[in-house]
């Protein structure tokens, strides 16, 4: 039976952990470059903790929030004492301000409703201390996939129980909304027997150069730098695969 759940259900989380158990070192170093001991740090959409855990291991004071209970269970297995909350980002109300907030892995692109995205940016701005920084990445239109009509196997991995976990997906890009639609079906097999399946309606908004900067200024960020790489090269067009933003009040 296929169940539509949040973006990261059981099978999606299992595959994510197999393929992305640790943060890429260049990306981790980028986000660490803004962190200081003694400062309050928040990672919304912290997932299974591939960034949060290394931050804690370096003695940094970091908290996390995520909607996916499945992802947070994986995080807690790695770091039982982690300060994390399962919450919708639109309902989360911290009692303190943060000196540094970051969202990794292009996850802001998951907010394909631009009005909702602006509301989230506005909320994050309110969580920052006066000198705080908000750092995040989005996918660009250079990530557009070729359209296809039929589901095909995109990834196949073995779990630690020796089950085969398969992702079947297809792609369609909506020009008007700049939304990459990539629905996926996760299937777990014991030999040839299908024992579990899960549907994920995966969508991302692909950004053009200058687009996010307008939204950030609209919600009240006055200092915005846009990079095209983890080496902090200034972005000059949208031919790069991601934009990285460093924002201040």
TrEMBL record:
Entries under SUPFAM superfamilies matching the protein: S-adenosyl-L-methionine-dependent methyltransferases (SSF53335)
Native species: Bacteroides salyersiae CL02T12C01
Keywords for this protein: Methyltransferase, Transferase
Keyword flag Transferase: yes
GO molecular function, one term: methyltransferase activity
Highest taxon listed in the record's lineage: Bacteria
Ranges for domain Methyltransferase: 41-132
Keyword Transmembrane applies: no
Coiled-coil regions listed: none
Protein name, as recorded: Methyltransferase domain-containing protein
Pfam families assigned: Methyltransf_25 (PF13649)
GO BP term (any one): methylation
